[in-house]
Fold this sequence. Notes:
Distance between the termini: 68 Å
Oligomer: single chain
Shape: globular
Number of helices: 23
Helix content: 25-40%
Strand content: 15-25%
Structural class: alpha+beta
Amino acid sequence: xxxxxxxxxxxxxxxxxxxxxAVLIDEEGALVHESAVHFDRDLPSYGTTNGAxxxxxxxxxxxxxxMWLDAYDLLMERMRAAGVDFSRILGISGxxxxxxxxxxxxxxxxxxxxxxxxxxxxxxxxxxxxxxxxAPIWQxxxxxxxxxxxxxxxxxxQALADLTGSRAYERFTGTQIAKIRRTDPxxxxxxxxxxxxxxxxxxxxxxxxAPIEVSDASGMNLMNVLTCEWDDQLLESxxxxxxxxxxxxxxxxxxxxxxxxxxxxxxxxxxxxxCSIAPFTGDNPATVVALSTPGDAILxxxxxxxxxxxxxxxxxxxxxxxxxxxxxxxxTPDAHIAMLCYKNGALARExxxxxxxxxxxxxFNELVEARPAGNDGYMGYYFPLPEIIxxxxxxxxxxxxxxxxxSPPTIIPIPEPSMxxxxxxxxxxESQFLSIRARIAAILPPDAPPLQxxxxxxxxxxxxVIQQAAADVFGMRVFVAGKEGAAEGxxxxxxxxxxxxxxxxxxxxxxxxxxxxxxxxxxxxxxxxKAERERVYAGLVETYRACEDAVVRMCATDA
Length: 559
């Protein structure tokens, strides 16, 4: 078979906590097929709940690696039953849940290289290819001790954030490795290589252990986020000198060529022997690939609120904070992704809707539109759950401020009954969005190009009033994403690696997407900022920060 197929396809795989999904796109980036395996429902013998197993230790959360292997085989069976012609697939990439780690034994490389196409993956790889049978995943919170030790090794939380893009987090891979070294030294000693979930995935296709991809490596607390190279001091702290060999080569940039598919897949499933394998990335970077380009921001308005900000290359590096994350970009060298995560997203908005808008979004929207931008100087902060940004604040807080705002800001804390009842719906939207706007301004380098678009996703993204409020507060055109997700981002990475190979290694991801002609189908503009309102919100950022600082002080006093 020749790689010069007239109608090639590109496979993207998404190994999330709860399942394994496959999508196929064509040469123009259009979606042509989807299949999925749900771990709990389709592989019940593993006894997982939402794809994971809690315990036995406090805070420990893992997933069986063998279950993921069985999911690969079941997914291929479903794709074949749906009529997928595997020989048309000329590129494979994808994404894995971030932070999770897989521990290969010294036999792994030989087993991968000599897979028997008459047998399924799990039957050959598990347990012999793994020194640890259950992979720690992102929900694990058992490594607090290792977090403090890793931060201390480099001079504190801010120093670690400056170096790696994030302070130490229990779910991050570096601290997970350190805990295994401390609590199970024999397993650590017998581990020959360590993969992220995202590098475990292409290893199965290559028949050899793949390098870790640069963007997903940003979620390990082991890589210098500016040089994109492993940091020896952090490797020493987490895993002693031998971790350098266990972690593998320097991280690989996305959209590059790792090799062609192994004969196992050609013989068992009929894949094209010239099918290329590209690095897989993490789920959040893959979502960025699917929905945006550098200069865009993605705002996910789900149960939690997450901002993914694609920062184009600039002379000055983005600032790093202990309350946010900075990742290397999966397709664009020297670009970055800033990530902000808030617990109190839809839950807080729904509580305000229920309490002040009779439980109806129609009434909520009417009340928002009845109030002016800036809410006549009233600000409300709503944290039904202990928040991440700012850390550990909890409860509701209200302020009265002069209009127009003063500099320095004048703020007056007020009790909830002094807040006009009809002001709450606008107050929660303004405070949630101003929190993000204030932090974007702090993160972006002073010489960064202006942001281009705000792409909304998640449950609240369909609300027209919320769309307009976002456009006004951020001063950006607002687009609503289609159904593209992480798996589609993985397929685009596969297509990008193939496309670059066709072009002699030249060309950017943005150039490839610009040639698709599918922009109008992928997302649509739903709101434009109103200049007068945007000016109001630009003038409120300093006041917002002053009120937030007051909330932090109140919570510290109550603690």
